[in-house]
Amino acid sequence: MNIHLNHTEAGTAGQVVTFSLIQDDRLHILHPQQIVAFRGPSNSRQDKLLNISGIYRKKKLIKSEITGPCQFVAALPPGFTMKEVQLTENSDLLYDFRHLFFYTDGVTMHTKIQKIKNMLITRDAVKMKFSGEGKIGLLTQGQVCQQELHPTAPLYVDAGSIIAYPENAHLELTVYGNNLASQHMNYHWKMTGHGSVLFQAGRENYKLQQDVNDEGLFKRILKEVIPFGNVIIK
């Protein structure tokens, strides 16, 4: 199986991903509505109902099972990108099921119940642990970053930006910095342990765009008060 991500025209138009499957390849697509072009035998695509837990977490009713040989193109929404992850034998990462775009045959999913306080923040009762030999595709906002955890030196990560973390990591919901800093930030996970954590770096981009594009109250007042202010002040 070959996966090609078109980065050159992503921007505001979104990203295009081309999947090329050979004989005996089988791919499970959890967002089949994003498939915009397909080449191959029509019976290569078989849509099936998700199980109850999948319907609850993905808010979707169906998935597509696609077998090779064939080729198809999926279009991702603006601001989103896809990361391909090769599973290893010792992988112990817990994932947010909502980020899952595809998985290959040979991948097994196990549900891990979260603690009550974690459920309230993440609004998800379970995390998913993948095992076996194969690949998964993660749908994220912006680039995916990877940071190593330390047994004693904590890493603070925006709680809503977390994609995956080691099963045995120690997590504590908190904020950091002085009083002013802690009052103007989202909740963060204070994380220690071994292994690496994955998080998306584009979740807060829209807020920065608003701040940059916002003229500000003082500037708007000057434009109204000063004669020809709209012409002079840019």
Identify the notable features of this structure and list them briefly.
single chain; 234 residues; alpha+beta; six-stranded antiparallel beta sheet; 6 helices; 19 strands; globular; AIM24_sf; Trp_RNA-bd_attenuator-like_dom; AIM24 family protein
Protein architecture, described:
The protein is built from six helices and 19 strands. The chain has helices at 52-58, 116-122, 179-183, 205-213, 217-225, 229-232; strands at residues 2-6, 16-21, 26-29, 35-39, 45-49, 62-67, 70-75, 80-86, 93-95, 100-104, 107-113, 126-132, 135-141, 144-148, 155-158, 162-166, 170-174, 188-192, 196-200. It has a six-stranded antiparallel beta sheet, with no helix packed on it. The model has no long low-confidence stretch (mean pLDDT 81).
Major β-sheet profile: 6 strands, antiparallel
Q: Assign an overall shape.
A: globular
Distance N to C terminus = 52 Å
* Number of discrete helical segments: 6
SSE order, as H and E? EEEEEHEEEEEEHEEEEEEHEEHHH
Residue share in helix: 10-25%
Mean pLDDT reading = 81
Q: Mind telling me the C-alpha Rg?
A: 22 Å
- Report the count of strand segments: 19
Protein name: AIM24 family protein
InterPro entries: AIM24, AIM24_sf, Trp_RNA-bd_attenuator-like_dom
